[in-house]
Amino acid sequence: MLRHPRRIVPRLLALVVALTPWSGCATIRRYAPDPLHRPCREGFVLTADGWRLGIRHIQPAQPDPSKMPVVLCHGLGLNGTFWTITDNHLAQQLAARGYHVFIPDMRGSGASRRLGPVGWINQRLLRETPLLELGDGNWTVDDEIRYDVPAILRYVEQHTGHQRVNWVGHSLGGMLMFGFLETQPDAWRIANFVGMGATIQQYTYPQTQMLRANRALRGMLRVVSTGRIARPMMIARPPGLEKVDRFYYTAANVDKATVDRFYGYTLENPGRGALQQLDPYLEIGRFLSADRTIDYVELLPRVTTPLLMIAGEGDVMSDIPSTYLTFNAVSSPDKTLLRYGRIHGHVDDYGHCDLVWSRHAPREIFPDLIDWLDQRQLRPAPSAQAPPGSTPTGPPWPRGALP
Predict the structure, then answer these.
(1) Which of 121, 188, 190, 340 is 20 to 30 A from residue 256's alpha carbon, by CA?
(2) Do residues 71 and 165 touch, judged by C-beta distance below 8 A?
(3) 401 within a domain of the structure (yes/no)
(4) Tell me, what CATH number does 200's domain have?
(5) Within-domain flag for 398
(6) CB–CB of 271/108 below 8 Å?
(7) Rounded distance, CA 205 to CA 396, Å?
(8) All residues at 6 or more sequence positions from 360 whose CB lies less than 8 Å from its CB, including other chains
C-alpha cells in the first residue's frame, strides 16, 4: 500500500518538470525545422491490439496509376524519420518516379502510442523526460508482425485503393516481413519485398559482442530511456562513441548532419521485449518468435514473393555470408541479391545504415532499387541490365564456402 499518496503525485510531477529541460527530447523533435524530421503525425493507424501508429504519406507530384504504393519500414530502436534525415532521400526519389510513399512510426517509436489513459500519460508527460514510459518495452516483434503490418496495409488501401503494396524494410523492418510472409493470411498483399540489411540467420554465431551489448541495453532500459538521454548527442558526443556507432554506419560514408539528426530525431528505445526476442538470433544464429515456438528460419521456404535483398560489404550487423543464408533459403522464383562495396566498383563498402544514409546511396543504390520495383508493377517497365554486384537467382552456397 502506498503511503501518503497525495505527496507522491506532486513529487513525481516535480521530478518530471526538473528533468524536462535536461532532456529536451520531445520539443527538439516537435519543432524540427524540416517537417520530415518530426514524428509521423499526418495520419494514424489503429491496430487490433490497441496501438495508434503515426504514419506519413508522401504523395507524388505526378502519380503513376500503374505503380502500387511503397511502405518504408524502419528498424528496431528507430522511427520513421530514419528514411528522411538525409538529402535526396529514398522517399523523395520514389515519389519522383510516381509512387505513393507511406512511412510508419512502428510501435514504441515516434508519434505512436498505446490507446487509453496509459498511452496519453506516456505521450503527454513521460515522453517529455528521460523517464521510462508506462509499459515501455512490453511488446515483441511478433506483435508488429500480427498487428502493425496488417493495420498499415488497411490504412494504405483506404487512402489509395490498392490492396497490394511494395514493402521496403531496413534491418528489423525487413526481418519482420519474412515472418509476416511466412505466417500471416494477408501475405498475398505484399506484391514485392525489398530487404535492406535484413537477414534472419547468422553465418557466424554466437555474436558475443552484440549479445553482451543487447543484454546490457535491456538492463539500462529498466531504469532510464536510453533513446531520450542520447538526444543531446545531436549537439556533442563523448569520445569513444565511434566504437558503438560502427555497428550503425561507416563514418566516412555518412554526413555529419545526418548523424546529428539521427541522435536528435531518429533514435528511440528499442523495447526490452523485442531485444530479448533477438537473443536467439545472436546466440544460435536463428530468428525465433518471442515464445520460441516458431522458427522463422525454418519457414523461409514458404516465402514466394518477389524479393530484392540489398547488402553492404561493410555491414557488421547483417553481413554478406548471413545474407546469402537467408537469400538462398527463400523459395521465390523471382529473387535478386545486390551487394554494394568497392569490389563491385562502388565508392565504398556500405555499412548497415549506409544503405539508406550514405551520401552516395542516392546515386549508387536508390536507382537500382527503384528500377527493380518498376519492372514488377502493374504495367512492367522494359527489362534493365543488372547492376554491378547483383545475383539474379542466387547460386547455392553451402556453409563454409565463400561467396
Answers:
(1) 340
(2) yes
(3) no
(4) 3.40.50.1820
(5) no
(6) yes
(7) 21
(8) 253, 346, 347, 348
